[in-house]
Amino acid sequence: MKPIVTRYKIKSEKLSPGLRIALVSDLHQRDADDIALLIEKIEPDLILVAGDSLERYDNERNKPYYRPTLSFPSWVVLNTVYYLNEFFCLFSRFKNKSDDGNTFRFFEKISAVAPVFVGLGNHEERLFPEDYRFFEEHGITVLENADTVFEKNGNKLKIGALRSIPDEKWLSRFSEEEGFKLLICHHPEYYDILLADKDFDLIVAGHAHGGQFRIAGRGVFAPSQGLFPKYTRGLYHGKMIVGTGCANTAAVPRLGNPREVVLIEN
Length: 266
Description:
By secondary structure, the chain is of the alpha/beta class. The chain has one domain: Purple Acid Phosphatase, chain A, domain 2. Helices cover 24% and strands 25% of the residues. The chain has helices at residues 33-42, 72-91, 100-111, 129-137, 168-175, 190-195; strands at residues 4-9, 20-24, 46-50, 116-119, 141-142, 146-152, 155-162, 180-185, 202-205, 214-215, 218-219, 221-222, 226-227, 234-236, 240-242, 260-265. It has a six-stranded mixed β-sheet with strand order 1-16-2-3-4-5, with helices on one face. It has a six-stranded mixed β-sheet with strand order 6-7-8-9-15-14, with helices on one face. Strands 10-11 form a two-stranded antiparallel ribbon.
């Protein structure tokens, strides 16, 4: 399924009109050259990456901050999708395989378009030294429970990113700063448990993959949220935007759920 561009308008007196922000997430080391081409065409002022670009694991740190108990229907759906995926992988040729070269090529292309700010997801428990070297060489800012400042055309944004294992002290401090505060948070489900009482102007997230299947505009299943999840795609609470992601990581196809570049305009 071809990727699409989804546009959202935000209004803030803290920003001058005309700012264009691109959001992508959940590359998972798949080929996303078509996504990079879309980003080139929309000409954003900055690019946000909301986690799970690479597959990097450290078993000693594989301790999820938040993992709800699944209901029995959610457990059934999760296992059904898992075994269907195994079946499709056995009897079909899953062409878009995971390769970190895909991610590096994607970042090389988009970093030539605009400044890139990267948050990490649950698939990026740690990065390798060569990952950090690549990002530094291409002028890409990786934020791990940390924040920085981006300025252009009179606009000043404070951009921070929350890791899957969050630093709540940093989060509270960042939320109390003055100015326009933008938070990259891979997990949209963190809104209810960590972010609802915090002062952010814009939150961007991924992780839910649009719910994998979308029926009547609603996602069917998402990790950490279960069956018919609350946050899968769109604008929530007037300030949190959730993208559907750049890749399909399963042989089971996405249905009614195209891969997506989000364009946020002021």
